[in-house]
Structures are given as C-alpha cells and as structure tokens.
Fold this protein.
Amino acid sequence: MMDTNANINASDAAGEMPRDEASFTPKQRMLNAYRGAFSDRYPVAPEFWYYVPAKLLGVDFIEFERDVPLWKALQTTFRHYGTEGWCVAFADRHCDNARHSSEWRRESDGRYIAVHTTEYQGRTFRSARVYEKGNPSWALEYPVKSPADLPAWAEMVMDERAMIDFSQAVAAHKEVGEDYLLEIMIGSTFFDFIAGAMGFEAALECLMFSPEKEMERLRRRHEEWQVDLTMRVCGETAFESFFIGNAYSNDSLLGPVLWRRWDKPGIEAVAREIHRGGRLLHVHFHGRCMASAADFAGMGLDCVCPFERPPGGDVAGLEGLAKIRELLRGRVTMNGNVHTVDTLIRGRPADAVREVREIKEAFAGEPRLIIGTGDQVGRETPEENIAAMIEEGLQPPQSHRTGLTE
C-alpha cells in the first residue's frame, strides 16, 4: 500500500484554492446555520464523501477505504475547493465477550472479499464485503441470517460491558479544527440498525411479521443504548454536533407511516439528550422526504440533508423548495438539493448556477440554509460544474446580516 498521508499533504500544497480573508471560519458558518444565525454568507458544503476525494488523492477505492482516514481525505478536499463541509468521526468499540476473526481474500485482479466472523454466546455471525479498486465496497453477506438470531446480535452490539474509546475521534476533531464541521457518529435509526444486520428486504419482513411486542422491546433497547452513548459523548468529548445516518429509513423505502412508528421516537429521544448537553443534531434522510418534513420541525432536529430533487427525491425546483421551507417552519436547517446527476454530471455550469439560485430564492432571509448537493458528487462530474455551483453559492445575498453565535 502507498503512503497515503504523504499523498494527502502533497495534494494540500499543490491544489488548494485560496480562501478569502473573512471573519468566519468554515466551521463557524456551518454551526451558525445549524443554530439559525446568519454569517457573512451561506455555507456551501457539497457532499464530496468518497468519489471526489479518492480522485483528488489519486488512490483506488481499496486504498481509500482501508488506508485513508475519511475525515482527513475530506479535509484535503474542502481545502482544495475552498468550501465548507461536514464529515463524521467514529468511536472505537471492543467487546471482550465476543471473539472476532477476519480474512482478506483475493478474488481477481482488483477485487477482494473481506470476511468477518464473530462468535458471541454460542452463536456465530459471519459477514462479507466486496472491495474493488474502481468502486466503494458493498455488503455481500449480512451477519444475521434469521430473525431468531437478531436479539443475540443486537445484544452483542449493545453489550454494556463493551469498551468505547473516543481517543481517535477526539484527535481527528482537534486536527480538523476550523477547516470544516466534523461530527460524531452515534449510529443510525432503529430500522437501519436491523437492516444493517440483515439487509433491507429481510429487515422489512422481520419488522412486519415478528411479534410487535418483541420488536418494540428491541426498539426501546436501541433507543436507550443510543441515548446512553449520547450522554457519554457529551461528557467525554467536545464535539459540537452529532450525526445519525440513513440508508433505508426514509419515505422512499420504509415509508412515512413505518418511519413514524419505528424510527421517529428514537430520534426524538436522542435529540432531547443532545440538546440537554448543549450540542446539535444532524440527520441524514435520503430519497423522498416531503411527507415527513413537517415531522422534522417538531423533533428537535437542527439540520437535515439532502432534500433530493426528482427522480430520487421529491423536492422539485423553486416550488418544492418553498414548500420545504414552509414545512420546516424556521426550526430546521436545510442542507442540500443541487442534483448530482442531472445537473452536476449531465448538465452545464448554467444549470448548476440556476439550481443554486433557486435554493437562495426559496430561502431568502432565512439563516437555516446550507447550499449542498442531493447526494455525493460523482467522479464523472465535470470540474467546471462543481466550480459553477461553488462560485454561485459563495456569493452573499444582499439581504444577509452577520451575527456570530457564541
């Protein structure tokens, strides 16, 4: 494997776009938006995530995922483009009551299988992921094969005797400094928690056909575990913002009725604990969201992303954005909405400018806005389209006031 840290540092020196002198740092702009306060301009935070950083650093995805810290790669990327941004750090966890073994197997040139086996209380959980040089990894085999094994797996993951170490996350938070907003990951929604163990289809079947009392008992245990983790993060770290991830828990896949039943209560409980600790909450909610946006406003969420445009989402143009603003009621920060495929990959710079202007127009006079993308930016994206989005986003609205929150 190559020395990726050296590559990161070289990229910093060679390609970084100059920042204008300003009274606000990128991190401050993001936090102000989360808190509902104006800065000198709206933050511009494209979701670069994997594809663009790997391309910028000149590494394949096997090296990127195994050797390059994501927070460091995005620090390089945000510096390069001169934007704001966000990323997540993870706590390390070790459970002495479980035995782990791993195997790294070469399938063909540029393709590997990583197999992980865990033994816990007489049960064996085996998972596998595919790693390719040209694409991010994906799950080949999930650890839970039957609903009967789900309670034991959940007990292992949420074992109160497990050691949780924040040291690497805290070090990353310190090194990122004011370059962007590094958040602490505190897991996912309840449905994504079980889907991550079983896969989407099996998790949905488990949710629908298992005894409701058993699933509710498991949901409450997950909520208690997540709230307890939140309390520990507040007590042991200085992270300003917490992050709850999303893969399947949205209107497109789970649907608003099941989301309200199984995921909304846990998110609300975590939000209360986060605010009790004086911190902020950012929730990822991919796909369609219009049916649930009104719920966001009453849940204590500080920021939600990415409010996708059709066909993946349902926030279409100026009319859709205006409706989202109405539903959020000035209580939640909107982050996202520039279409990553139709606009950034297939479109022209003028299309990127048009969508950014629609976002600004719909949220004119509203401080709770971050100009971002509706998903992660693809590697096929022309640089001129990224530049057009950023340049238009960096223009401060004439009505902007400044006022840094403490």
User: Anything to note?
Assistant: The chain is about 45% helix and 20% strand. The chain has a mean pLDDT of 92. Residues 108 and 132 are 10 Å apart (CA to CA).
